[in-house]
Specification:
single chain; 225 residues; alpha+beta; Beta-Lactamase
Length: 225
């Protein structure tokens, strides 16, 4: 994203953050930046992130599977804050004239105050239970987006989905480690600077081993196997 566009969207982030209020987090990701990180953010307390935080696991997936090629935006999918609050997330893909992804503008709504108000009203009416702002229409089935403020948190979140329960990483076979690396590659985790070293540490192997696995995976993809 060039300096002009970056300045324009940064101003938009500030405007939307002020106009929509404290329950809406507005985030600008610069995809072409050196570290593909948060370039501007308003109301960042919602997810606990600041400028410089890495792309989320879901944003990486959007890039890896090229979701942006067929859609200009995605609305009302589920996110989860670091303190386990459920958020309603939406992302607009920012593209250049050639359709190449250069950024993402994200809005994350925290409904917790309204959920509590709904529950309090029910109690006043003598009804027990909880009202959630989620439903199947607003939140399509799929993985929840997790918000992290460091590369280690992103890789840790994704790895937890793939490491076998009860089996420590050091006991995984090479085939099992390669299978995990393949799944992480498909999710775009290695787009993050420093991800190779983080994954190597978690899998108890060297960075060279991760690069070797990635090389084999690329050859398999090229051959169609």
């Amino acid at each position: 994203m060039n300096k002009v566009k970056l300045a324009q969207y940064t101003a938009l982030v500030k405007f939307l953050g002020a106009a929509l209020g404290p329950d809406y987090e507005i985030v600008l990701h610069d995809i072409n930046g050196k570290d593909q990180s948060v370039a501007a953010i308003a109301n960042g307390r919602i997810s606990g992130r600041n400028v410089g935080a890495p792309l989320t696991d879901k944003a990486l997936r959007f890039i890896a599977d090229k979701t942006y090629q067929d859609q200009d935006f995605l609305c009302n999918y589920t996110g989860r804050s670091k303190d386990e609050r459920t958020l309603r997330a939406s992302t607009m893909f920012i593209k250049d004239d050639g359709g190449r992804l250069i950024g993402m503008l994200c809005i994350n709504f925290d409904p917790s105050r309204y959920q509590k108000a709904s529950q309090d009203i029910l109690k006043l009416c003598g009804l027990d239970g909880e009202i959630f702002l989620e439903d199947n229409h607003l939140h399509p089935a799929g993985e929840v987006e997790n918000f992290s403020d460091s590369i280690s948190e992103v890789t840790d979140t994704v790895l937890k989905r793939y490491l076998k329960d009860g089996i420590p990483p050091e006991r995984l076979t090479q085939e099992e480690k390669m299978a995990i690396v393949k799944q992480l590659e498909e999710r775009g985790i290695f787009l993050l600077k420093g991800a190779v070293n983080e994954v190597a540490t978690r899998l108890h192997c060297s960075a060279a081993s991760i690069y070797r696995y990635l090389g084999k995976i690329n050859k398999q993809n090229e051959s169609g196997n």
